[in-house]
Write a structure and sequence with these properties.
The protein contains 17 helices and 21 strands. The chain is of the alpha/beta class.
Length: 562
């Protein structure tokens, strides 16, 4: 686990002084000190008209001024001369990094610059990614020195304009984003790699080298501002830990992450009540769609129901109750509508919705202080093609009483979710229901790996979730659920079929199917996370693999949305 702390500017100045005088407790020679640098428009008389022309340059003045005031004179002058060199190829664009020469001063920290882009365009996500870019650099072979400790002084001025309102962005939000970015970047899944070779010799297992991150606050902070920012430390740490947990579960293999594993993990979370239904119990309650999918595998299936109840002694509970429902297909072969091998290889990730819900519930239990009652519901099973498996053309009665023609056994996620949604409405009486699922490949065609598709019955709820996603650095894009799409699911032999026409509004058709099981007046949002739940292209804050998408959005929604 990465150690996180918030430091005031004077703490860094004192440490530099101690380090330069080489007192015994000096620690700065093993650290990286990273500064954020804005870009600015290049003066007209400096622009050229070549193909390499850039319209902006790095605004290095604040960094030079800070170094001149707080570093020893000779070193500060050397750094300032380097920064003013015309050969310096650093523009300050977002995520760009530059390592400054050490000038032989081992007692001083290694200096890294990271670009923030134009000051008037700064957002929490820009700072989140800048912090992540620094940590990624420090963990890479491109870093000339290896360090375990990084101090992020990304903002030298506490007055930052907001591009949306032109008001100041809340300082606690800015520095929480910096902390999140650093922690989110410092991740590596290697739990299944051994540390001993075939002959007993030790093997090195690749792990992040950074183990401690300090977020440095600007000069001139008031006690109240420092206190407000410090209160965000637990939120940033818990958010990152929960995201990492979801990533671990998605990255691990299906022979380890089974429905039984999800059940055991859920039951182990302290501070939550946990109810588990066996498949037989779920079937007895009328969850025949869930049972139809689960019976194709010999692996036991479960309906998992976690509940967080506010502590009445510490807070008056909110009237709002939220139910989170996560698709928990721990492996998806497609059933008898078998996937081709290339499409099946990564189907361990089909429980990403369940991983998100489980991680969020774990985070809520850790943080507490939430006035809202929250339920986490996970239908967990495999989709396999044994002799008992669902057959294309089967008709099944859902928990809601509606009949479904199964024309595609590989559209199984909506079958287990429809019963879970009915269960959520009947047994939690939630005022809001949010489901997350890696539901359709069509959402990847439409939105790629960048955004999740959002659909539902309440525009206000979707807009609030989108705003929380913006805060968290996760994008949601709303798709329509107009009744004009209902004919896509028309069945001649049942109330509806589980899959629409191939190549026609596949993501919306899946959403329309789920909407059929949501009662009139129920606020409900469906998030199809098939695209952003797993990526082969990393960003500074998201290594390749499972991303933990949705964890941050839901935690921001539950804790920060008005």
């Amino acid at each position: 686990m990465t150690k996180l702390s918030f430091l005031q500017n004077q703490d860094i100045i004192d440490a530099i002084h101690v380090s330069h005088t080489k007192q015994p407790d000096s620690q700065m020679n093993n650290e990286v000190l990273a500064f954020g640098v804005f870009s600015k428009s290049m003066p007209a008389d400096e622009k050229t008209h070549t193909a390499q022309t850039t319209e902006s340059t790095a605004d290095l003045g604040p960094v030079s001024e800070w170094l001149s005031r707080h570093f020893p004179k000779n070193e500060a002058e050397a750094f300032t001369a380097f920064l003013s060199s015309s050969a310096l190829k650093f523009s300050g664009k977002p995520k760009e990094t530059l390592v400054l020469p050490a000038y032989g001063q081992a007692a001083l920290p290694c200096i890294v610059l990271v670009g923030l882009g134009k000051e008037e365009k700064i957002t929490s996500q820009v700072l989140r990614r800048a912090a992540a870019a620094v940590i990624k650099l420090c963990n890479s072979s491109a870093m000339p020195v290896k360090t375990e400790s990084v101090r992020l002084q990304l903002l030298l001025n506490k007055s930052i304009p907001s591009p949306a309102t032109q008001d100041s962005i809340p300082l606690d939000a800015l520095f929480c984003a910096i902390a999140e970015g650093a922690l989110l970047s410092n991740y590596k899944f290697n739990q299944r790699k051994t540390t001993v070779g075939p002959s007993g010799q030790p093997k090195k297992r690749e792990v992040p080298t950074v183990s401690a991150v300090s977020v440095v606050l600007p000069e001139g902070m008031t006690e109240g501002e420092v206190e407000a920012i410090s209160k965000k430390q637990a939120f940033a740490e818990t958010l990152a830990d929960a995201t990492h947990a979801a990533r671990d579960w998605v990255n691990d293999s299906a022979n380890f992450i089974t429905p039984t594993f999800l059940k055991t993990t859920a039951a182990s979370i302290q501070g939550l009540s946990c109810k588990v239904l066996s498949l037989e119990e779920a079937k007895a309650m009328g969850m025949h769609c869930f049972e139809l999918v689960a019976r194709g595998s010999t692996t036991p299936a479960y309906l998992i129901h976690l509940t967080y109840t506010p502590k009445l002694a510490s807070a008056t509970p909110s009237e709002k109750t939220v139910a989170l429902v996560g698709k928990g297909i721990t492996f998806d072969s497609g059933g008898l509508s078998l996937k081709p091998p290339a499409s099946m290889e990564l189907m361990k990730i089909d429980m990403a919705g369940a991983a998100t819900v489980l991680a969020v519930m774990q985070a809520i239990a850790s943080l507490g202080e939430l006035k809202t009652t929250v339920h986490g519901i996970i239908p967990a099973c495999e989709n396999m093609p044994n002799g008992n498996a669902a057959k294309p053309g089967d008709i099944v009665t859902s928990m809601s009483g509606q009949t479904v023609e199964v024309n595609n056994t590989d559209a199984e996620g909506r079958l287990i979710l429809c019963d879970a949604l009915t269960y959520a409405q009947q047994y939690t009486k939630a005022s809001e229901i949010i489901d997350l699922a890696t539901l359709t490949g069509a959402s990847i065609v439409a939105l790629g790996k960048v955004a999740a598709a959002a659909m539902g019955t309440s525009d206000a709820m979707i807009h609030a979730l989108k705003a929380s996603g913006e805060q968290a650095g996760e994008k949601l894009w709303q798709l329509p659920l107009d009744e004009d799409y209902a004919p896509l699911l028309k069945s001649d032999v049942a109330d509806l079929k589980n899959a629409g026409a191939k190549g026609e509004a596949g993501t919306i058709a899946a959403g329309m199917f789920l909407k059929t099981f949501v009662t009139e007046g129920q606020a409900w949002t469906h998030l199809d996370i098939a695209g952003p739940a797993f990526t082969s292209t990393e960003t500074p804050e998201t290594p390749a693999g499972g991303t933990g998408f949705g964890v941050r959005t839901l935690l921001y929604y539950l804790y920060c949305a008005s």
